[in-house]
Every structure is written in C-alpha cells, then in structure tokens.
Amino acid sequence: GDPWKRLTIEDAREKKLLSIFARGRARLQGLTELFFESAEPPFDELAPEDFFARFPEGTYEVEGRTIEGEERESDVEVTHAMPAPPEPLVNGEAEPDDPECDPDEAGYNARAVTAPVTISWPAVTETHPDIGDPQGSTDISIFSYEVVVETEIDVAGEEFTTKISAVVPPGVTSMTVPAEFLAQSDEFKFEVLVREESWNQTATESCFQL
Predict the structure, then answer these.
(1) Of 161, 36, 148, 152, nearest in space to 86 by CA
(2) What is the mean pLDDT of residues 122-134?
C-alpha cells in the first residue's frame, strides 16, 4: 500500500491494541509493511480460553495516515474458528504422534525414508476438536496449506539453517521435496500448516531422515 507514518489497530470493542508512529527520517520515508508475532506461551501456561478472551471475535479496524496526510482505513474479521491440525504422511506413512526431532536428544525418532520424499496430508475438513469455537464443526473453509522443510548444514565451519517453503491452494494436499534440497543433508524437520479463510492457522511439526 501507500507509505504511511502512523498506524493503529482497534479490537471489536474499539479498544486500541497497537499504535505505531514513524519518527524522524522514517517519517519522511514512510513505511509500507508490518509483520510481527506475539509471544507463544504453551497452553499449560496460558489456557486456550484465556488466550481467546484477550482477542474477542468481531471486526477489528486498522487505521493509518500516509506521509501526505491522507487517512487510510481497513476492517478485518477475527474469529475463533481454528482448523483441525493436519496429519502429515511422509512417503505415505504416518508420522510419530510425539516426534523427537533433535538428533542430540534421547528418544530421537525421525522416520527413516528413501528419496524421493513426498509430504502429504488428508484434506482438513473440520475445525479443531479441542481449541476454539466452534469445535469439531464442518462449517469451515480452507484458504491454503503451507509446507516448510528445513535442515542444518555446515558453511565454512558455521551452522546454517537452510529451508524451503511452498504455499498451495486448498485442493493440493502433497508436495515432493526437491532432490537438490535433499542433497544438502540427511536429517530434516518439516511443518505443515493449514489456514482457514480468516487466516487462523494450525500446524503440525515432524521430521524425517534419509
């Protein structure tokens, strides 16, 4: 969008959640994008119902002012409908329920597979059975899936994380990992994410080894 110098976000109760003001030379240049993530405490520290209570459902308003002083405004609908977590398969085989993907930890159980490697998953057709509202409903529309695969390699004596990712439409439920990427290592972690139309998303992490 147009470069802006001020941005605010209000929740469905018109309570301000965020205010950003560009200052100095940043104000003259303007900003055009914003990306951030909140902290992610586990649910044994922050119960799901308490998390959702902090961000009530409804229409959230994003307002901004461009560097020319013009007002900009947009609305986004926030829901508590979370898609059920994807259930990935690697070369057609189900992953462990509780994978240990760190080879330096006891209980390391990355599944051994042979190339070529295809990560697939059944289409997600319901909301999460335990988290969010409504739970276990079939009234859900999937917007996209995303697959992220990463591995650690050595570059001039330094550890380097290399990764690939692909966002695919809801009708696509598999991805073959390029042979060139697999050639870098023999231990890989991966994540399959599913996003519903409001962009609420869940993810499943696992790993494999060659």
Answers:
(1) 148
(2) 95
For residue 81, the SS3 value is coil
Residues 6+ apart with CB under 8 A from 144: 167, 168, 169, 170, 194, 195
pLDDT digit string, tens, across residues 84-109: 999 999 999 998 888 999 888 888 99
CB 162 within 8 A of CB 150: yes
Let me know: does 81 contact 200? Beta carbons within 8 Å: yes
Write down the mean pLDDT value for the chain. 94
Q: What are phi and psi of 145, to 5 degrees?
A: -120, 155
| Spatial distance between the Cα atoms of 88 and 200, rounded to a whole number of angstroms | 19
Distance between CA atoms of 72 and 1, rounded to whole angstroms?
10
Structure tokens at 186: 């023999």
Indicate the pTM of the whole model.
Answer: 0.87
Task: Indicate the DSSP class of residue 95.
Answer: P
Q: Which of 68, 69, 64 is nearest to 7 (CA)?
A: 64
**Residue in this structure with the two tokens 């100095």, named with its chain if needed:** 24
* Amino acid letter for position 106: A
pLDDT higher at 37 or 143: 143
Residue given tokens 């209000």 in the structure block: 10
* Pair 145, 192: CB distance under 8 Å: yes
- DSSP run (H or E) holding 160: strand 158-168
